[in-house]
Design brief:
Oligomer: single chain
Largest sheet: 2 strands, parallel
Shape: globular
Number of domains: 1
Structural class: mainly alpha
Strand order of the largest sheet: 1-4
Radius of gyration: 21 Å
Number of strands: 4
Number of helices: 17
Helix content: 55-70%
Distance between the termini: 42 Å
Length: about 375
């Protein structure tokens, strides 16, 4: 283990007590948020429509934060025990959000985290009809190329309103097809937990309010509008972590890949509360099992670790990152992918030169 590239970094983090997982803090955060949301959801029913619309962004933001806690639970980074993490993830994902834990684990933990921004391996950079690289643009049809050149960046944010619903639907499809695709363990405990809690999710969100006297129009309208705005918030949180960073065809050092395809978002404590660790995208990718409560203290250690090895550690403000990400989507069709190869100085230099491919942005 002493020869492992991460051994020295993990030792430093352990010496600072940052590898511990604060179970009580994780449960306290989600319980308090759910209690506040219970009050907000009730207020939306009782208050006049205009006041409900005023509250809507706050309600959606806190709803997004609860869903993000599910992301941490699936990474097993919220609690000390596996049971605690699975329980937390089950509350936040299938029960509260209607999102399959197993679908998310395979798409995000297994595929994205292993190969962030890697062509044909990271599902997050392959989303028809969008393109994230020149190579994908060149393999697209004429009509799709026109879309990617001219309106991709403008189309992206309006379509983000569908993200929450599409993720839920993809998870439901995954759950339905899972027993038919797996040769072994077709009906695992996680599958049964996912399936049952997703059904409970729809009962609590859609059937129960109607049973209690809320009109079906209000019930369905609130659900659709709320999760549409949550989808946009989720998109903003996830897109700034990687968009505009290098798209990679080949790499030789996974640890360098994790750092140089990510971006640290500079936020105060208030803003960081809602990101649940994804403002520390670089640290999260290097150490996905690290609790988001410990990431702020780990960040300076990770940054120093990267800079000592000559690896680029990018950190920018949130709104600047949003602009950079949107511009990157606009220019993706003419932005070539690169190779990360420490043995080749020319390839290594491409990382440093990558930002010159993007239009300049004022801080």
């Amino acid at each position: 283990m002493s020869a492992h590239p991460m051994a020295e970094l993990r030792k430093k983090l352990q010496d600072h007590g940052l590898l511990d997982k604060p179970t009580a803090k994780s449960w306290t955060k989600i319980i308090v948020l759910l209690a506040i949301l219970g009050g907000l959801y009730t207020a939306h029913i009782l208050l006049p429509l205009k006041w409900g619309l005023v509250l809507f962004p706050i309600t959606a933001l806190l709803t997004t934060t609860v869903a993000m806690i599910g992301h941490e639970g699936v990474h097993l980074s919220a609690c000390r025990s596996k049971l605690g993490n699975v329980s937390l993830a089950a509350v936040a994902f299938p029960l509260f959000s209607g999102l399959s834990m197993e679908y998310w684990r395979e798409k995000h933990n297994v595929k994205h985290h292993a190969h962030p921004n890697v062509v044909e391996k990271d599902p997050d950079i392959h989303s028809w009809p969008l393109t994230f690289s020149q190579e994908e643009y060149e393999s697209s049809g004429k009509l799709r190329q026109w879309f990617q050149r001219n309106i991709q960046a403008y189309f992206f944010w309006p379509i983000s309103l569908l993200v929450g619903h599409l993720m839920r639907w993809d998870g439901i499809k995954y759950t339905i097809l899972h027993p038919f695709k797996k040769k072994r363990n077709r009906f695992s405990k996680i599958w049964m937990l996912d399936s049952s809690l997703i059904l409970v999710h729809f009962f609590l969100w859609l059937a129960l309010p109607i049973i209690l006297g809320v009109s079906w129009q209000v019930t369905f309208g609130f659900y659709i509008l709320l999760w549409s705005l949550v989808g946009t918030f989720l998109t903003a949180i996830f897109i700034v972590g990687h968009a505009g960073r290098p798209i990679v065809t080949k790499y030789d050092e996974n640890w360098r890949l994790q750092i140089e395809t990510g971006r640290r978002i500079k936020l105060g404590k208030f803003g960081s509360f809602f990101f649940v660790g994804l403002d520390y995208q670089i640290e999260h990718h290097l150490l996905p099992a690290l609790s988001h409560f410990n990431l702020p203290k780990a960040a300076p250690i990770v940054k120093k670790y990267a800079e000592e090895r000559g690896w680029e550690y990018e950190e920018v403000g949130f709104f600047r990152a949003l602009v950079m990400s949107t511009i990157a989507l606009h220019t993706a069709w003419k932005t070539p992918s690169i190779e990360i190869d420490a043995s080749n100085p020319e390839n290594a230099a491409l990382i440093e030169d990558f930002t010159t491919l993007q239009p300049p942005i004022e801080a």
